[in-house]
């Protein structure tokens, strides 16, 4: 049986997130929503995140602006991307203080964090959740379903699947994808594998350093 930890990045979007939540509620599937901090300044978008939390989904920090990956930024700027989003999130944070860096299209590596950002995440006892299945719904809003199905068919461990609650039309296929996956025996709601959690409540695992650039600038 393939197990999936379902996640959504780059929201909340008032035109899209409520529909995603409705699908998840109908199918009783839990998810994690990694929000862009600047979007929480919009009361309608914040209400979406609050609804997601109230309906049992976890909310995580996905940087303030989702610009250049933090490993390619200066120390002060990178820390601010995390800290300001934490401030805007407030009570949306759960006990794990989830954080997901911007990979720039789903790539993993030392571009994800610089040393200052990594040290800040440790000091603030964050949990970093990465990914191992990115079907590209953000660039292929109609074809991502087939890509995701192929990824799950080939999964050898729990898949941390990254989708995006963005207004590009991709989420109109969400219910169809989830239904087909469940019929194929996929179980949603799984805990992520350890390899996708290089930092847990401020404690670094063996792979954390692989995602940190060698040095930070001021």
From TrEMBL:
<comment type="function">
    <text>Is involved in generating a small heat-stable compound (Nod), an acylated oligomer of N-acetylglucosamine, that stimulates mitosis in various plant protoplasts.</text>
</comment>
<dbReference type="InterPro" id="IPR002509">
    <property type="entry name" value="NODB_dom"/>
</dbReference>
<protein>
    <recommendedName>
        <fullName>Chitooligosaccharide deacetylase</fullName>
    </recommendedName>
</protein>
<dbReference type="GO" id="GO:0005975">
    <property type="term" value="P:carbohydrate metabolic process"/>
</dbReference>
<dbReference type="GO" id="GO:0016810">
    <property type="term" value="F:hydrolase activity, acting on carbon-nitrogen (but not peptide) bonds"/>
</dbReference>
<comment type="similarity">
    <text>Belongs to the polysaccharide deacetylase family.</text>
</comment>
<dbReference type="GO" id="GO:0016020">
    <property type="term" value="C:membrane"/>
</dbReference>
<keyword id="KW-0378">Hydrolase</keyword>
<dbReference type="InterPro" id="IPR011330">
    <property type="entry name" value="Glyco_hydro/deAcase_b/a-brl"/>
</dbReference>
<dbReference type="InterPro" id="IPR050248">
    <property type="entry name" value="Polysacc_deacetylase_ArnD"/>
</dbReference>
<feature type="domain" description="NodB homology">
    <location>
        <begin position="2"/>
        <end position="189"/>
    </location>
</feature>
<dbReference type="GO" id="GO:0046872">
    <property type="term" value="F:metal ion binding"/>
</dbReference>
<dbReference type="Pfam" id="PF01522">
    <property type="entry name" value="Polysacc_deac_1"/>
</dbReference>
<keyword id="KW-0479">Metal-binding</keyword>
């Amino acid at each position: 049986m393939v197990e999936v930890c379902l996640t959504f990045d780059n929201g909340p979007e008032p035109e899209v997130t409520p529909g995603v939540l409705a699908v998840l509620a109908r199918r009783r599937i839990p998810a994690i929503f990694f929000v862009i901090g600047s979007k929480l300044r919009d009361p309608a978008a914040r209400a979406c995140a609050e609804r997601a939390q109230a309906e049992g989904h976890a909310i995580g920090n996905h940087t303030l602006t989702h610009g250049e990956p933090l490993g390619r930024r200066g120390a002060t700027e990178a820390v601010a991307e995390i800290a300001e989003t934490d401030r805007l999130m407030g009570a949306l944070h759960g006990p794990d203080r989830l954080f997901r860096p911007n990979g720039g299209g789903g790539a993993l590596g030392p571009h994800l964090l610089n040393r200052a950002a990594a040290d800040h995440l440790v000091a603030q006892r964050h949990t970093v959740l990465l990914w191992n299945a990115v079907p590209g719904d953000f660039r292929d809003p109609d074809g991502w379903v087939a890509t995701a199905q192929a990824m799950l068919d080939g999964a050898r461990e729990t898949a941390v699947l990254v989708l995006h609650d963005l207004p590009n039309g991709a989420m109109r296929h969400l219910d169809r994808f989830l239904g087909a996956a469940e019929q194929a025996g996929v179980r949603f709601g799984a805990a992520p594998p350890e390899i996708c959690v290089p930092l847990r409540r401020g404690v670094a695992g063996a792979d954390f350093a692989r995602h940190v650039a060698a040095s930070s600038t001021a």
